[in-house]
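Can anyone check this?
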Amino acid sequence: MAPNGEEKRPDPHLEDTTRRLDRALRDAKEIVLATRRRDGSTSRGAPVWFFYDGRRVYFTVAPESHKARRIARGSPIFGRVGGSAELAFSGDCSPVSDLRAVEEIGRMYSQKYWIAWLGFFRPRPARITAGKTLMFCFTPRATVPDEGSATRD
């Protein structure tokens, strides 16, 4: 219920955007992700490879990267699919430490990216265990894009 006692209706524009975001995440090869800096501003977006299982987005980062440090500090993720300003999303990241899940997502990368099929740039349990790579996941929420969020310069 809305504060005025009326029944709250879903926003049809947001529902449509959510459906389009789901389709785009299933088809896209990369997404642009940004994080919140300590001063509250949004970082410049960087393209990343990812896997989307229909509910959550999985991606890897180097432990020493700004993105990894900001996520560890609690920064949300802000993103876009490709260059589309209409398909913006946000989410709260969680680390992925289940090595069986990492192995399965690595297999999915191999199906999605030809170079991962060759054995390069795919998530591997050994790299997670050794601390050479971090894997995160988040549930994307369609958002109304703001100026400058997750844009590439």
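Reply from J.R.: I decoded it. The domain at 12-143 is CATH 2.30.110.10 (Pnp Oxidase; Chain A).
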